[in-house]
Write a structure and sequence with these properties.
three-stranded parallel beta sheet; 11 strands; six-stranded parallel beta sheet; single chain; Rossmann fold; multifunctional enzyme; alpha/beta; binds the ligand Nc1nc2c(c(=O)[nH]1)N[C@@H](CN(C=O)c1ccc(C(=O)N[C@@H](CCC(=O)O)C(=O)O)cc1)CN2; 2 domains; 288 residues
């Protein structure tokens, strides 16, 4: 069996068209959605992600504001920038690019973003709402994965989903969203003993470990759906995921590539959350 390739580029395109028409409708009604991205420091990967976010936001027809701050900025100064954006009615989504320099308390900064503009879905209030299935902004990467599964016709209810990784941004919310769609969910992590005994049971395997080509065909059941969240460099410096794609694609039924899989969906879902936020702002007359 050779796996079907689930392309985040293709699915993302489809969703971005839907977003564009939502944005146009909103603009016709007098409200232009706006996204502000704060970048602290000069991490090259973060610079690339922020540049791509800016380009995608403009392509979607939204207002894009980029705030670039030096790595030496104090926590207090950074919080002031967030507060200004919280009070700006032309901005409906605020994102602080992570990671932040080590002298800044990431949790404090996330908490300072208005939950109504937290299009990353990282604010504790929004995390709580997600946990109990209330409508809120869902974290972009796991939200994007759910869209990929659903739009690829992959059934979730009753399936055994195994999530490797327990980060607040990906692993934990991923399991929760799968659970809400009636999957049976197992979390594995760096302290899990005999990892393969769990991953071999997975109908849907989510790899979010951060280790190049860690998941091999020895970890995978025949016909499983493989979602690779990893972004690493291999021994030749080439971008690769957490999954050993070439060997696993021979036994999986479907697989996401790296690049071109989960990554592009992260930015797509950010745009979707920003549109959702602007639509709410319009209803309560907080959009100008
Ligand atoms: N505030 C946030 N910070 C970070 C997030 C986040 O969701 N919110 N996620 C990551 C980085 N990230 C977005 O910010 C992100 C990572 C990767 C991609 C992507 O499209 N990857 C491409 C490959 C890109 C390349 O060539 O290097 C792919 O997989 O095809 C988009 C967004 C950490 N920080």
């Amino acid at each position: 069996m050779t796996a079907k390739v689930i392309s985040g580029v293709e699915i993302g395109k489809e969703i971005r068209e839907e977003i564009k028409s939502g944005v146009n409708k909103l603009i016709e009604s007098g409200c232009k959605p706006g996204l502000a991205v704060i970048l602290v420091g000069e991490d090259p990967a973060s610079q690339t992600y922020v540049k791509n976010k800016n380009k995608s936001t403009i392509e979607a027809g939204m207002k894009s504001e980029q705030i670039k701050l030096p790595a030496t900025i104090t926590e207090e100064e950074l919080l002031k920038h967030v507060d200004n954006l919280n009070n700006d009615d032309s901005i409906h989504g605020i994102l602080v690019q992570l990671p932040l320099p080590s002298h800044i308390d990431e949790d404090l900064v996330i908490k300072s973003i208005s939950p109504d503009k937290d299009v990353d879905g990282f604010h504790p209030q929004n995390v709580g709402k997600m946990m109990i299935g209330q409508e809120t902004f869902l974290p972009c990467t796991p939200h994007g994965i759910m869209e990929m599964l659903e739009r690829s016709g992959i059934e979730i209810a009753g399936k055994h989903a195994v999530v490797i990784g327990r980060s607040n941004i990906v692993g934990k919310p991923m399991g929760q969203l799968l659970l809400q769609k009636d999957a049976t969910v197992t979390y594995c992590h760096s302290k899990t003993k005999d990892l393969a005994s769990f991953t071999k049971q997975a109908d849907i395997l989510i790899a979010a470990i951060g280790k190049a080509k860690f998941v091999t065909k020895e970890h995978v059941k025949d016909g499983a759906v493989i979602i690779d969240v990893g972004m690493n460099r291999d021994e030749n410096g080439k971008l690769c995921g957490d999954v050993d794609y070439d060997s696993v694609k021979e036994i999986a039924s479907a697989i996401t590539p790296v690049p071109g899989g989960v990554g592009p969906m992260t930015i797509t879902m950010l745009l979707k959350n920003t549109l959702q936020s602007a639509e709410i702002a319009k209803r309560i007359e907080k959009c100008n």
